[in-house]
Amino acid sequence: MNNLYQKYFLKSNIITLIIIFFFSFFINYYYSSFGVFPIDTFFHYDSAARILQGEFPIRDFWIVSGLVIDLIQSLFFKFFGVNWFAYIFHSSISNFLISLIIYHYFQSIKINKINSLLFTCCFSTLAYTVSGTPFVDHHAIFFLLASTVLIIKAIDSEKNYLWFFIVLFVFLSFLTKQVPAAYIILTQGVIISAYIFHVKKYSIIKYLILSFSLIIFFTLTLLFFLNIELKDFYIQYIHHPRSIGSSRFLNFELTFNGFFNDYKFIVLPLILTFILKINKCFKKNFQLSKKEIYIFLILCSFVFSSIFHQILTKNQIFIYFLIPILFGLLFTELQLTNYKFKKYCSTLLLLSLIFITLKYHIRYNENRKFHELESVNFDEAVPAHKINKVFHNLSWLNPVYNGEPDNEILLIKEGISYLEKEKDEIMLFTHYLFLDSITKKKLNYPTRSFTTDGASMPVVGMKYFKSYKSFLLNKIKDKKIKTIYFFRHEGISEKTLTDYLDPNCYNKLENNIFILFKLKCN
User: Fold this and answer.
1) Which of 250, 293, 257, 266 is nearest to 155 (CA)?
2) Is the peptide bond preceding residue 180 cis, with omega within 30 degrees of 0?
3) What is the DSSP string of 244-298?
4) How crowded is the C-beta side of 247, counted as CA atoms within 13 Å?
5) pTM above 0.85, yes or no
6) Which of 18, 194, 315, 360 is packed most tightly, with the most Cβ within 10 A?
7) pLDDT tens, residue by residue, 63-82
8) Cα separation of 268 and 323, whole Å?
């Protein structure tokens, strides 16, 4: 009888795993190919492809974030080729892996398999799918979500070896994007410190120090192996991004109406869970355990750090994946009460979650709001393989291009043809961050993207303006660049170049496709 039960249990787990894989992988895979917002959609495309050509972030092109995601994406390109499939396979498998972690979290808080599967599918719908393609904020926050789940498990099970992996995930998040890792390290660090000294689990400190030391050692070894100067790493990845964050923090504004409208479905279930926990404390002979208190505080720190990060980034909202997690927590808390209507409340909670998930699914997945595509007509999209066969299955529709998609593709192809005829070394400033990998001519981007808000490179008035200027001029000199190109129709600010060059060192020309800067100084 026992063998029969184990066989059934194993079979049911395999079926559940298959369902989670197919749902989480293919929902992301399907929606990732609906339209493009070039600067975000292809943010890690060429930078990852350049790694396979022996060019590395920080050393060969300026970055402010995304080191880990570039390295991971380069591995997908290595195994599957530099193409659209390999690109969205990366984000789709990431959606599956984090969904699997969340499923086990729901199981750990005593939600039955059917409901755990429902909560997980809602999570998958609102997780990586809102972007579809590899995106720095998603990778960074999902590494932290994984570490948070592991902290909860480590506190609950008292398995100290888990702290090694907790530090690893936090560090991977930091090397993907500095925030929200910095916020999480600060808030959860305080809570973990209090937990260690409160319950006298001093052995945890040894694991934390050991794991941190090993990770720092391997990181320094990797930088040495890639010939990346520690000073350059510090300036590009730590100090300059910190100055960006400081300016955003100083300009931080928040209104109650704005906060409630955007985050009500995140905050309300957390508040209700807190009320239910407090209500239990007033019952006779009941007391919250130390573990339960610290676990709840750890989860709260992750939620509020995520919201704070979302507000400061000023991007489209991508943290609605928190809704199924917090609804799951509230669902569990509700099951532990003796409230006579809890069955009806639980059903209402599940129906509400399905409704909310569908609402954001339509807005962010069907209408692709995250990539600014909510106001376009998807019937006008054209196959992106018209640009190059590597973009098979991608539907090309760019919301920032004022014209027909076919005309934009024609401009891109004419531009590629023009650049490939150039005999001298050139440099291209563009938001089409896939051109270097499909063009025979080396395009020598000096940075991953080209914006004037300081998020791409230090601009006039910023502390490391001279550092980037020196970096850019050295790349121009080392690569023997003769001409620097801008696509006319993209409208990228010429200040991304002219602020760093002596006006006497170039002649500005134009044709029907490009704005050209012919360099004439040594």
Assistant:
1) 293
2) yes
3) HHHHHHHT----HHHHHHHHHHHHHHHHHHHHHHHHHHTSTT----HHHHHHHHH
4) 13
5) yes
6) 360
7) 999 999 999 999 999 999 99
8) 10
